[in-house]
Amino acid sequence: MGWLIDLLPLSYTDAVVVIGAAILGLTSGVLGSFAVLRERSLVGDAIAHAALPGVCIAFLLTGAKDAGSLIVGAAFAGIAAAVLMVAIERTSRIRPDAAIGVVLSCFFSLGIVLLTYISSQNNANQAGLEKYLFGQAAGLLERDLVVMAALAGASLLFVAIGFRILKVALFDADFAGSLGLPVRVLDVAMTVLLVVAVVIGVRMVGAILMVAMLISPVVAARQLTHRLRTLLPLAGVIGAGIGIAGALLATGSELPTGPVVVVVGFCVALAAVLLSPGRGALWRARHVAAERRRAAFEGVLLEVETAMHAGPPPTVAELRLATGRPRAQLTRTLRRLERAGLLRRDGAEHRLRLTEAGAAAAHELEQRRDLWAAWLEHGASLELPDAREPDPRDVRASLGDDVADRLQELAT
């Protein structure tokens, strides 16, 4: 690991922190995906909190702050918490969220009690154990990176080898059981992977904040892809990027690394939720707004044509009274129709009249709506070569001229 530290143009401490944050982000992104996709994200939170008493018990047994023994203690405590949650859920009438809450609060309280007891023993070796609450990335050493990299490499190799089996058990446990796969063993394996991610990161970001590293990269990646084969490496890359960016920002501003990494992860996840193409909240809001403008555009166009056939061309006030549309929406839509060359205003009263292009557009729109109505009424009786659902806005383009002509014949 020394060669990698030497490659980075940073001081020894900063280079170790950056590499550790990258390992943590990569592992958390990949392994946290299984918890998020199983809708068991809070299990990771409970396991992270359960790591604290494991660290304390390992210290009491060994009397030293050896990274290896503390990690083993955290791992055993995490596995014990996971087993206890499953046992409470399956052998009682307690719901899963309540079981998680009980185990989380119990183990974390035990950890606080043990920390208080250790600090009262006046043991010089105990200094720094409380950093497992919020993490202490600056205390990482090269040997810690070796342990983290070994655990990360083993877990990622396991995921790569068992990807197909894990995928089946993840999305359809009943089908996996019908194939003879050991579903419960695979469920335990995915939980153990979660424990591995926790013990890798609890030293850096702490027991309280570790759950954010398990969720943030997956949330961001999930907004960008819908395939597990792409999601896992993408979540790992995003997690590594979050870790590196947070570590560099923290070292440059002399802020605690763990909280800064978590804040960066939150910002990345929030940006993905808001801005991701096709799924982002802002993209969807923009799409909905565009659909509403389109519907208003077409609706007002037809309403003007209907009013013209019923009597003299209407004024804006008469059209608003007849349609009940809000004044602001009607005004904006009429301006758009005018800019499109589909509408003009005549006379001193500025009566609304469709242009030749507007009349043609209204006629085409009526035909499309009539075709959609004919599809809803007679579509089930048609024999199509494949199972297709037409676009309500353009049945002819989506089903073809032959099917559209048959629909028109059935409707007449």
From TrEMBL:
Compositionally skewed regions (Basic and acidic residues) per UniProt: 385-396, 403-412
Pfam families reported in the protein's UniProt record: ABC-3 (PF00950)
Residues spanning the membrane: 15-37, 42-61, 67-86, 98-118, 145-166, 178-200, 206-224, 231-251, 257-276
Keywords annotated in UniProt: Cell membrane, Membrane, Transmembrane, Transmembrane helix, Transport
Localization in the cell: Cell membrane
Region annotation Disordered: where it falls in the sequence: 385-412
InterPro entries noted in UniProt: ABC_BtuC-like, ABC_TroCD, WH-like_DNA-bd_sf, WH_DNA-bd_sf
Membrane disposition: Multi-pass membrane protein
Family membership: Belongs to the ABC-3 integral membrane protein family.
Protein name: Metal ABC transporter permease
Source organism per UniProt: Svornostia abyssi
